[in-house]
Amino acid sequence: MASLTATFCSSSVGKKLMNIYSLCCCSEGEIGLASSSNGCKSAAVEQKGKDVETERAEQERRLKTWMSKIRHKIVVLSGKGGVGKSTVTANLGTALASRDRGARVGVLDADITGPSIPKMLGVRGQKLDVGLPGVFPVIGPLDMRIVSMDFLLPSDETPVIWRGPLKSMAIKQFLADVVWGDLDFLLVDLPPGTGDEALTIMQSIPNIGGVVIVTIPSEVSQVVVKKAVTFTRQLGAPVLGIVENMSGFVCPKCGGETSIFKTGGGQKIAEELGVRFLGRIPLDPRICEDSDDGTPFILRHRDSPAATAFIEIVEKINGLVESAPTKKP
Fold first, then answer.
1. What is the model's pLDDT at position 31?
2. How far apart are CA 296 and CA 235, in angstroms?
């Protein structure tokens, strides 16, 4: 952990993103202890506390400014791991940015400890740049703007061993200090569960356009994913609907379909909880191959059943967010 934090904070991007790390290290306990010692130390800690509040207020201002330039903020969430959230995010973003639609799209990989969006979109090994306005995203296929912790890691073997508060702070700074610019859509790819990262995103982004919840058909996934629906509702964000991923296997040679993980689990959750069912995406081995190659599946196999499913889901999402009442910033 110390090695990663030192490497991260010593980089130009790290210095920009982590400029309040040292300020946040001052806990309430430290303040109480300092105030009981000499007056000079107490005054220094008091000033440190004021600096923290000033920086937090400034960060909030920057966050609201950048987010106000983005028309639709969409979160991709699931209570369960291994359901293909990142695959769905990468391909939905590609479908939105494709020539047919031509939307300006950004993707925030909010999985701090297991980032995979850069690999799927073919931008691994690139780095974030820093300028006077802030940190600039990496430009991916179809001019998608991409931000991920993966761009800040020194090697593939480097783990991010951070507790929740530090992960939450990094996410907030990805939102506040990155020059996202004018976008039609910002897609946020969250890690599994409803913990620190999900809570930070949901509470930090103003006027979230909606949440797309991803599941696979199995009952094991259904049980956990229901919690994600409740989580979203409790935080007051609109549930755009449920996507059933890995729903049947489509043979790329003959086109025949087999239900490997069953089918219908996503639609069942939608009916039970009273939310929309956005569609089902069949298994296709080429999705895995294209993700490993760093090429969005729907660009290479646009006429496949799975690509058609992605595009149809995007049409539904676009219709929902465009027809939603406009909220004041």
1. 28
2. 32
What stretches of 11-67 show up as alpha helix (H) in DSSP?
12-17, 21-24, 28-35, 39-67
Question: Is the pLDDT reported for residue 36 higher than 60?
Answer: no
Q: For residue 322, how many other CB atoms are within 10 A of its CB?
A: 11
Over 141-201, what HEC string results?
HHHCEEEEHHHHCCCCCCCCCCCHHHHHHHHHHHHHCECCCCEEEEEEECCCCCCHHHHHH
Are 322 and 96 contacting, i.e. CB atoms less than 8 angstroms apart?
A: no
What structural domains does the chain harbor? 2-61 (no CATH), 70-323 (3.40.50.300)
How far apart are the C-alpha atoms of 301 and 285, rounded to whole Å? Answer: 12
Query: CA 76 to CA 190: how far, in whole Å?
Result: 6
Q: Are 118 and 150 in contact (CB under 8 A)?
A: yes
Amino acid of residue 213: I
Residue 3: pLDDT band with limits 50, 70, 90: very low
pLDDT above 90 covers a percentage of the chain that reads: 60
Q: Which of 9, 10, 3 is nearest to 21 (CA)?
A: 9
Q: Which tokens go with 265?
A: 């689990």
Per DSSP (E only), the strands in the chain are 70-77, 105-109, 129-130, 135-136, 138-139, 145-148, 183-189, 210-215, 239-250, 257-258, 277-283
- Contact (CB, 8 A) for 129 and 136: yes
Whether the pLDDT of residue 104 is over 80: the answer is: yes
Give the three-state DSSP class for 149: helix
User: What's the whole-model pTM score?
Assistant: 0.84
**CA 164, 169, 173, 174: dihedral to nearest 10 degrees?**
0
pLDDT digits (tens, 9 = 90+) for 207-241: 999 999 999 888 888 888 899 999 999 999 999 99
Is the CB of residue 166 less than 8 Å from the CB of residue 117? no
Residues of the chain with pLDDT > 70, as a percent, come to: 83
